Amino acid sequence: MSGDTLGAGSFAVADYVVFALMLMVSAAVGVYFAWTGRGQRTSGDFLMGGRRLTALPVSLSLTASFMSAITVLSNPAEVYRYGASIGFYGFSYIITILVTSEVFLPVFYRLAVTSTYEYLELRFNRATRLLGTVLFIVQTILYTGIVIYAPALALNQVTGMDLWGAVISTGVVCTFYCTMVRKQQYFHFPFQLGVMLAGFLSVIVRSGGRLHFWDFDTNPLRRHTFWTITIGGTFVWVSIYGINQAQVQRYISCKSIHHARASLYINLLGLGSILLCSVFAGMCLYSVYKNCDPWTAGLVSAPDQLMPYLVMDILGDYPGLPGLFVAAAYSGSLSTVSSSINALAAVTMEDVIKPHTNVSEKHLSFISKGLSFTFGVLCIGMAGLASLMGGILQAAISIFGIIGGPLLGLFTLGILCPFANSKGALSGLVAGLVVSLWVGIGAHIYPPPPELTRPLPLTTEGCNFTTDSLNWTSTALPTQLNAITATPVHNHYNHWYSLSYLYFSPIGTIISMSVGLIISVFTGGYWQKVEPRLTLMKEDTTLYYLIKFFKDRVSA
After folding, report:
1. What is the DSSP letter of 449?
2. Rg of the chain over all Cα atoms, to the nearest angstrom
3. Nearest to 140 by CA among 323, 399, 335
4. b or e along 303-337 (b: 16 or more beta carbons within 10 Å of the residue's beta carbon)?
5. pLDDT tens column, 242-255
6. Closest Cα to residue 178, out of 362, 365, 337, 19?
7. CA 515 to centroid of chain Cα atoms
8. How far are the Cα atoms of 32, 39, 63, 126, 184 from residue 365, in angstroms, in the given order?
9. Cβ atoms 189, 57 nearer than 8 A
10. CATH number given to 13-555
11. All structural domains of the chain with their residue ranges
12. What is residue 146's three-state secondary structure?
């Protein structure tokens, strides 16, 4: 890298045009569907698309919902620093879709719940539902703050856009079209997904030696291995696809359970494509900066800013392409934030407002839109907290692990264990939350040493500039410096906190289920009668019909 690339260029007029066009299309789609969808008079229509949708648009919206700027910016940086082992997420995606399709989808679709937390009251009691709702709201607001903050931080660093201007503009556009109407999201998501993939493909022009893929070490303290990503990743993604309101309200809005199942499996193609693109983009990062690491050199203040820096560096001479990548990052945030805001509005409506009010459906629809606006403002404010959470990918997965893990255990307990009762469910949820919080906060206070995280070597030996030009106002220490100064001394007391952050979710789920089962057995749960529709029945599974099909063929 030569001295004249230190600033990595700046936005040209064409880049601003491409970026502005993306925001305008997003806003225009919201206005168009708000106008054409004026007949949506019920809150159910607003929140679930009227349960008339087919598999394809729903599958695209499922993919885009949690493929945010975190994916566009953080996955390539992860590959750059630690190697391509995140490619193992492909296995966890497959297991996740199988489990969601066979265990959670049949029950939620049969009950036709607007909020997944309605299920907790039907299966257990009101207190369990309220606690589940509160945990979901906290988790989603924290996560959405990261999603809004991520592109704003990175783009501020490399394009000179004002940080809080970027935060507010992202949040305002998301809130605007989410408040206008729900239905538009299913048809808008293909556009967002296309922009995200185009942004990735605009930078995948070369690749480098950053594979470091086949790591089968079973040590649970290691940050990323085949086992941590496949097992831990499966629990995290099942908590998103199986029980998270933002995803569940999508696939139960399909017109039949077959369309709902198909939407999940088609969505796998989208997840795989984006994962593959982000791994290749990370290799591209390394091929360009293997001899001169911008992070170690202080040219960017966090690893999450490496991708936009690369874009401005190698594509700055092609007006419009940097704008396309910026649009990809923002489009990712747009899809995720709007999903989250709508899910927050749905659970607040169904779990907090409806049980205590008696107003018409028309008024409920207006209240729902007002809630979307309120949560949008709240999430924009929460973006400030995201600056304290460290690396955005790890922070996001940690949030889903610490809070989503115990919630996954609670729902699994209700669906798979007929003798689980409300005492067991509440006790298990609280126990799982306490343990996962303890481990998660401990890991933040005592981060694991480099021998467990194993960042790959980076160098500045090939850099061609003088030290005066370096920007040492960074908010995150470079890798080598960080390893020396920022890692606390580890001893056998805090070694437990070095557990891979991907295992926060399995711990919360397993503790929640184990305590829940034990308490249920000791409090008479074995003798209780549960409505069959609230648990998984053998007729719900594809396996049942496969066995039946083969039996019929043999007997024939």
Report:
1. P
2. 24
3. 399
4. bbbbbbbbbbbbbbeebbbbbbbbbbbbbbbbbbb
5. 999 889 988 998 99
6. 337
7. 28
8. 18, 11, 27, 24, 16
9. yes
10. 1.20.1730.10
11. 13-555
12. helix
